[in-house]
Request: fold
Amino acid sequence: MEQLSRFIVKHRNAILLVAVLLLIPSIFGYLNTRVNYDLLSYLPKDTESMKAQDVLGDDFNLSSVDMLVVNGMPEKDVAKLKTQIEGIDGVDKVIWRDSVLDLSVPREAIPESIQDMLYSGDSTMLIITFREPTASDRTMNAIAQIKQYSQMDCWLAGFSAITEDTRDLVTTETPIYSAIAVALCLVVLCLGLESWVAPFVFLLGIAFPIIYNMGTNIFLGEISYITKALALILQLAVTMDYSIFLLHRYQEEKAKPGVTNEEAMASAIQATFVSITSSSITTIAGFLALCFMSLTLGKDIGLVMAKGVVLGVICTVLVLPALIMFFDKWIEKWKHPVLIRPVKKAPVFVTKHYKAIIAVFVLLFIPAIYAQANVAQYYDLTATLPEDMASVQGTTQMKEKFDMNTTHFVLVDDKVSARDMQDMISQMEEVKGVSNVLAYEKYIGPGVPSTFEPAQLEDILHNGG
Reply:
């Protein structure tokens, strides 16, 4: 390690040049890494819901379904709107009353439960299916076009609409909170270090592993939007300490009599590598543990962050020494008193009263365990989205006007008799939380052969057994 440290110091300028050149392919990789916004894709494939999702996509082309609430529009104009939406690239079909019944048939002739689903006062609802999965680029582009009809008081609700809004939100806000994180780091570093320049050198140094990390994600094929949103902040937080270790050790070595800057940095690299390697291994192990989650989102986050820590360690001992030595005279010139002063009385108090402190903290376990057991958890991501988002407004309209907060599909083998289907439907309607169940067998008696089923309905309701 001593020889390697001297080699790094001796060839620091060449190493820095190579590091800068490597930013080019890294930026290319970052720009060409696909971001996955479909959280369903991270569920295990052998779960019942994902098996059903595959059937919905393969046999019914219903893997992505959204609802459009249309307010205050005459039925003939709704029919025109339906035709326009069907012409959008990525839309498979739009299901409304005229999909099975001509508009000449009075609304009152429609079964009451279907009326309740399709109409509410002067509002009506269209069911839109898409040709590709929820978060594909084609579906997202189609969603964006459909949302333009909001100026006609039309509101889109559904998982695809929420996903598209989430994409826009993440794209817009990630640079904002990243800039806030950088600003807060600068504040803390300026308070804790005695140099005004060193914090900026640290941020410049940590930019290399962050860009490398985001660029090398291209080898993973894609990353989730949650990983993308977290990676920069987490890597900044986890690896910034490594830079502080190196600078402090360099300044300590440089203060020794007769030691040149090159010798001081070589010694600092050697000592820092030992410290940060042992520290980083536990961090890397913690992130890699996420890879064992059945929900593969953990693997996505774990691999990206473990890779980020490894790159942080490498850049701390290869790139940062060159930056510190390049800016050394400015680091030494622009100094100020350390504003975060060491706490001197607290350590004395702790060592003197350690038994009492242990007893207090053991007693605190009791309320802490109780509180932890009673913390509520939520699984509805829409609850955390801004209320002025188009998809959230669409969901609100669905809930208030159609008493429909969410929609599910039940896939039934077509060998099940109509009578058994009717019994099943009756039982489902009695389940608490279910507001409406729609099925062909609900309206047609068991004595009516399936051959009499209208072709339009058969295309929607029956496929692939």
About this structure: Residues 159-192 form the longest helix (34 residues). The mean pLDDT is 87.
